Prior knowledge:
Elements: H1 10-22, E1 28-32, H2 40-57, E2 60-64, H3 68-74, E3 77-82, E4 85-91, H4 92-97, H5 102-110, E5 160-163, E6 166-168
Parallel strand pairs: 1-2
Antiparallel strand pairs: 3-4, 4-6, 5-6
Helix pairs in contact: 1-2
Domain Oligopeptide/dipeptide ABC transporter C-terminal: 87-152
Keywords: ATP-binding, Nucleotide-binding, Transport
Pfam families: ABC_tran, oligo_HPY
Amino acid sequence: MGRYPHEFSGGQRQRIGIARALAVDPSFIVADEPVSALDVSIQAQVVNLIQDLQEELGLTVLFIAHDLHVVEYICDRMIVMYLGRIMEVAPSRELNRNPKHPYTEALLSAAPVPDPTIKRQRIILEGDIPSPINPPSGCVFRTRCRYAIAECANTVPELREVSPDHFKACIRDDIL
């Protein structure tokens, strides 16, 4: 109680934040990037703590993160968003093993693989991220998508089921 916030480690601060959220006995918690600034070993401890609390307290957690492997570990379902739009929705394991949207494919290619014998082709997204205030016409991802065609500029793709319980917002069915 006698310490100032800057005197705590990153992991301690995350645990304090979780404790503060739990103080009001919630049934739902939004965890926005709860492990992004932590080293890997501390990330694992915080993720395991969140999972334990989910089970013990029956909590629902909306876990927001850029590390898709961490999200897969802690979540049953994943939603991939780009510029505030949903690009893909699927059970976590399915989405990580079988992405259907080009943005998900690019995100997964950026994640490090712990096995040095596995070589993954890194997909580098070209161009600048468009303004969320003035997004591009049609598909918001089209300006950075390696599969974009002219029709992508004219059509806002609907989120549609492409396999059982797997949805994507892309007009292209001939890719991935």
